[in-house]
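Inverse folding, one chain.
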């Protein structure tokens, strides 16, 4: 292929090497849907009307307008919205505990042997209204068990109640304390248990003993 033809393709693609577009799964809004949202918004359509037109839920359209509209003018620009969506979908995602102030607050509470749930709840109270200084308990667990997930020191896992250095699925956490020793399956019961003859005889014996004791 002639080099000049390659330059023409790159120029037509806006100065970037053209790559085939990845087919959308339909789970998330695409560029065409965002263009349609912008057209309907300019026509004065509401959130529910746009949702019906696109076959989406009203909450999806409301979230799209809230997250991707211009922060100052609140106007919806479809190409800018698509760009924001692509940036948010990038990997790897930054961790909230990359903030050293938040990481220090979490470390302080971990050294007091607080659980991640307790830390998350306390930060929500102490830093109420400051979302950047609040974190979920799952993020704290990941910072302790997954390398590179924030500035929290990984050795602080020793302050957790179980003190493990790695996570284990709940299905593998069952111990002998939670099991019945020498259990007998229902299929192995004796035949007398099915017709309850033994139980009836025992009940009659107990009743007769009680009546005799009362007569005394």
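Residues assigned per position:
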């Amino acid at each position: 292929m002639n080099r000049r033809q390659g330059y023409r393709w790159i120029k037509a693609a806006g100065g970037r090497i053209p790559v085939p577009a990845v087919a959308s799964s339909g789970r998330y809004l695409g560029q065409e849907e965002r263009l349609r949202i912008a057209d309907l918004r300019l026509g004065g359509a509401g959130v529910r009307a746009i949702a019906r037109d696109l076959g989406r839920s009203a909450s999806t359209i409301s979230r799209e307008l809230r997250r991707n509209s211009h922060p100052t003018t609140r106007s919806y620009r479809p190409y800018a919205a698509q760009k924001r969506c692509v940036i948010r979908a990038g990997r790897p995602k930054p961790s909230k505990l990359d903030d050293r102030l938040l990481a220090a607050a979490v470390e302080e509470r971990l050294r007091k042997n607080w659980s991640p749930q307790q830390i998350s709840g306390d930060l929500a109270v102490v830093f109420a209204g400051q979302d950047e200084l609040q974190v979920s308990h799952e993020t704290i667990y990941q910072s302790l068990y997954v390398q590179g997930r924030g500035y929290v020191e990984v050795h602080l896992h020793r302050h957790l109640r179980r003190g493990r250095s790695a996570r284990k699925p709940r299905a593998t956490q069952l111990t002998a304390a939670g099991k019945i020793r020498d259990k007998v399956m229902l299929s192995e019961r004796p035949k007398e248990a099915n017709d309850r003859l033994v139980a009836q005889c025992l009940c009659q014996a107990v009743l007769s003993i009680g009546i005799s004791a009362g007569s005394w």
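The radius of gyration is 32 Å. The chain has a mean pLDDT of 78.
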